[in-house]
């Protein structure tokens, strides 16, 4: 009876927890860095893309965001921690790129 399955207890497979649905990505923080305010939305978006290209490592994980404020369009990197926002703005300032750290509402 070698190799036979008669009388063998069924093997139990370890149960795995059911897969949980992925949580939506949440920003690391609520701070932001504003890199400009423009009258034209396209200019605001283009400048945000340019700053992101030049300073990509400073804004890893940040969201690019153009916010409307009356007639102005604010170019901002959002979802940063306070430390990350301050560090990024310092790096931009060293390269003569105007910016300001925006605290959460």
Describe the 3D structure.
It is a single chain. This protein is an alpha+beta fold and 105 residues long. The protein has a domain at 31-102: Alpha-Beta Plaits (2-Layer Sandwich), CATH 3.30.70. It has helices at residues 41-54, 82-94; strands at 31-38, 63-69, 72-80, 100-102. Strands 2-3-1-4 form a four-stranded antiparallel sheet, covered by helices on one side.
Describe the secondary structure blueprint for this structure.
Layout: E1 31-38, H1 41-54, E2 63-69, E3 72-80, H2 82-94, E4 100-102
Antiparallel strand pairs: 1-3, 1-4, 2-3
Please outline what is shown here.
By secondary structure, the protein is α+β, with helices and mostly antiparallel strands. It has helices at residues 41-54, 82-94; strands spanning 31-38, 63-69, 72-80, 100-102. It has a domain at 31-102: Sporulation related repeat (Alpha-Beta Plaits, 2-Layer Sandwich).
């Amino acid at each position: 009876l070698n190799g036979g399955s008669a009388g063998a207890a069924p093997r139990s497979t370890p149960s795995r927890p059911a897969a949980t649905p992925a949580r939506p990505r949440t920003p690391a923080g609520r701070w932001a860095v504003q890199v400009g305010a423009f009258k034209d939305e396209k200019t605001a978006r283009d400048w945000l893309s340019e700053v992101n290209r030049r300073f990509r490592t400073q804004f890893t994980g940040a969201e690019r965001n153009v916010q409307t404020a009356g007639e102005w369009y604010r170019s901002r990197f959002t979802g940063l921690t306070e430390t990350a926002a301050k560090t990024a703005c310092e790096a931009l300032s060293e390269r003569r790129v105007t910016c300001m750290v925006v605290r959460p509402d």
